[in-house]
Amino acid sequence: MTQHTPDWIAVDWGTSALRVWLMRGDGEVLERRRSESGMGGLSRDGFEPALLELVGDVLRDGRALPVICCGMVGSRQGWAEAPYASVPCAPPGIAQATLVRSAEPRIAAYILPGIKQAAPADVMRGEETQIAGILAADPGFDGILCLPGTHTKWAHISAGEIVSFRTFMTGEMFALLGEQSVLRHSVADAGWDAAAFDAAVAEAMSRPERVAAGLFSLRAETLLSGLAAQTARARLSGLLIGMELAAARPYWLGQPVRIVGADAIAAPYLAALRAQAAEVSCVADEEITLRGLIGAYAALSEGVE
Amino acid sequence: MTQHTPDWIAVDWGTSALRVWLMRGDGEVLERRRSESGMGGLSRDGFEPALLELVGDVLRDGRALPVICCGMVGSRQGWAEAPYASVPCAPPGIAQATLVRSAEPRIAAYILPGIKQAAPADVMRGEETQIAGILAADPGFDGILCLPGTHTKWAHISAGEIVSFRTFMTGEMFALLGEQSVLRHSVADAGWDAAAFDAAVAEAMSRPERVAAGLFSLRAETLLSGLAAQTARARLSGLLIGMELAAARPYWLGQPVRIVGADAIAAPYLAALRAQAAEVSCVADEEITLRGLIGAYAALSEGVE
């Protein structure tokens, strides 16, 4: 139980997890909570109970506590569909949010929209709120944001707007190939080989098609010459990130790049971009999403007052 | 129960299945049998019982029936390790086979070796016996064999030898991305769109790195413009096969190519190679592996006589 009654609740509701922050109106975090009730495992009727299970104890009768959500919770299969905003646009805020119709009088739940791009076709849900958080901390940022993850996003930011973006399934492919394919026998769960990573990035960037042949070579080298499993892991990562960087070249070439993510996931991107002499910096802000949600709450409370 | 006692047994023992043919000495098939006891699910002690369960009823006391096996059964985790032959070499035959030490006196089991290549590192187990089968039917074949599958093999054949080969995980990636990744919501289990496939092949061949970005576009187009699931399936296949063809260009460019495989798996390769004006033919010989095993038996029986 928290000591104070929160003024509002911030919610990052993704495919695999539900994270909430019990918040004071001034932006102070009273308490963090988390459950595994991600959007992927819930039917439409399951969202409200999942949220109430996590925060029901702090709700009070007679008051609808603002709950501001971002992420896959706003998808067609989510709690309520929050229509996409379209690039170019500023990260959408509370004015574009969808108010969830709920039978629970103790909450007023808003879902922030994702962003879409018509050509090339692309979508994001959740990252736009991270971008809002980055711009809240650094309103003048102009350049490229790289948000590595299961689905890495590259976004061109200018004059406070998301101009264009592109999604790469690099993280998901790394997990599928390393854990589910025949390469699972060759690739370690952890460990690294920086030189092998660098060489694989360079190979994939100069001849991206070779990634197709380079994958099975990892298995063959394990069998024939005892390739170390952590070297195989670094090479697999390097091949996939190299192919991504080759495709994302229009984003990072000649532009300042800021990688947003925890060290473990940001480090390979940082190394690969530095090897290309890109102008790159790195911020590891675990609560960047919260910053974006705080911005949305501020607009809500201003609107209310 | 078979009508006749077989003279020998042909065995194609892969990762996921065990296929046997009860054979007469003249090459006639008495009976086909199959079980799901693939190498992937067996420990070393499990192979002999799995085989006896399938064929024990045809064995006779007082005689060791020749059993000739190919495939992953000869891997390090298999029944017995059959060391690789090295390219350049003819498809290995019975003289290079490993005789399994077995407590069962009613069988004499041989495992044909796989083939390895030092640089670029590559291995095959099972396909060498398919190649033996192809060369048995057409001893003068000189050119490129494409054996599409979970792990597609390209092999350069000249003067009866495998000169070099290369493995692509295209089939496995197609299955992982289409069934396990976020694209599973976009990609149909069946159906096709030939124009979408052709366009995706052309895109991947001209700009292979774009495959990295093109994958998530399938998901985005589903969400934004209702991309048909069978079109998504054809595009996913086209992107992956296009990248493979870009990497395998040294194999197929200016060389006669023969695709060996059932229609469903050969057809996209045929279409993609024809679009590149490659000189390509297709043989759908389901029992090509059996032909290779029959060749090995012939050498064994000649050696015995």
Search tags:
Nucleotidyltransferase, domain 5; 37% helix; homodimer; six-stranded mixed beta sheet; 305 residues
Describe the secondary-structure layout.
Two copies of one chain form a homodimer.
Chain A: E1 8-13, E2 18-23, E3 29-35, H1 47-55, E4 65-70, E5 85-86, E6 98-99, E7 107-111, E8 115-117, E9 122-124, H2 127-137, E10 143-147, E11 152-158, E12 161-168, H3 170-179, H4 194-206, H5 210-225, H6 229-247, H7 249-252, E13 257-260, H8 263-275, E14 280-283, H9 288-304
Parallel strand pairs in A: 1-4, 4-7, 5-8, 10-13, 13-14
Antiparallel strand pairs in A: 1-2, 2-3, 6-7, 8-9, 10-11, 11-12
Structural commentary:
- Two copies of one chain form a homodimer.
- Chain A has two domains: 118 residues, Nucleotidyltransferase, domain 5 (2-Layer Sandwich); 117 residues, 2-keto-3-deoxy-galactonokinase, C-terminal domain (Nucleotidyltransferase, domain 5, 2-Layer Sandwich).
- Chain A contains nine helices and 14 strands.
- In chain A, strand 8 and strand 9 form a beta hairpin.
- In chain A, helix 4 crosses helix 8 and helix 6 packs across helix 8.
- Chain A is globular, with a radius of gyration of 21 Å.
- The interface between A and B is large, with 44 and 44 residues.
